[in-house]
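Section 3.1: Structural characterization of target chains.
Under the original work plan, the team committed to producing a structural model for every single-chain target entering the pipeline before any wet-lab resources were allocated. The record below documents one such target. The sequence was received from the expression subgroup and is listed exactly as submitted; it comprises 407 residues.
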Amino acid sequence: MIRLLKYIRGYLRIRVSGFSPERFMNLCSNKGILLSNIVREGDVYYMNINLKGFWALRPIVRKTGTRVVVLERYGLPFFLPKLLKRKIFVGGLVFTVAFWMWSSLFIWNIEIYGNYRITGDMFETFLQENSVTVGMKKSELDIETLEKEMRRRFPEITWASAKLEGTKLLIDIKENDAPILTEQEEKEPGSNLISEYDGTIVSIIVRRGVPKVAVGETVEKGAVLVEGLVPVFNEDATVREYIYVDADADIILEHNRSFSARLPFDHIEKEYTGREKKKYYLRFGDAEWKMPQERPFLVYDSVIRETRPLLFEKLSIPIYTGSYTHREYMNVEYEYSLDEAREQLNEKLITFLASLEEKGVQIIEKDVKIDTNGNSWVISGQFVVREAVGENIAIDKTDSGETITDE
């Protein structure tokens, strides 16, 4: 605090030399003139003195026969005159302060926390409908009304809070963690398990229903594997009634799968010429101003680089500067070699095999070859696989004439 007061009032760094510097300092002390940071170098003394004390030194200097030289000037009284001479700097400083004060009256950023089921787009639409937008005045925002409207509009919000932090509007919500129950249509039991492919049954474990196939049996696509119509027997082994169940079983089927993919002999690649052109722009929120420019090249792509000045970032003002770098390229036609074609097609095959593995499909045998067909390379493969099968299909209950009940 003392240093700040000294800076506001201003002070000097002086050099005192001559007949009796010690007597000079004693007289200054008697007159109430404050001296600080005194340093002695031989017969010369260096010290700080405030402006008021400096103007009172003349009689002391005459009396002591000393010589006082001003070395440095510090403080606001010396800084302000220099500053006022630099009109552009002062104008810029005044404009910056005025701009900062003006911008602090608006909301320049809206941040939302805690939303998981409510998407950002849904919340932005809600805010726009309630006239809460980037660039609005803080005085026009009613936070209490906004919080109530959020809870009314979104029933899944159990708690909502909105607050202003500088030029930011921070919205924090908490959604209901309990699952949302939806009415589901009651489904009567009664479905068969059917095969999705032609093949041979490798294993079958039935949990519910009547098995219609056995291990080693060959089945066709659409054949019933496990029936959901279960007979209930009397003591004399006669059928008393039938009940409907949803057939359930683990069934492994061995069958054939095929794969094929094509790769044209020729393909187009971008080849950059090294010529580039830049276009700068300024963006404020959603509005963007670009430098006028004609189409830079016949064929080109663009790289966008955007930055935000630190001042506007601290104030949360959505002002950005950036540039478009347009790079010219040529479309060059190349022809795949056998090795390149093999590499490309093998990648497609690996992707296909990985998809089978994700589904738990076991590959028993495979036969893959690469050949040409017209103007393309072709990869084709035949695979013997084992995979789980069984698709539930509802039973048509109108076709049966037996006495049937639901489980």
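The chain has five domains: 2-80, 109-175, 191-254+391-395, 260-265+336-387, 267-334.
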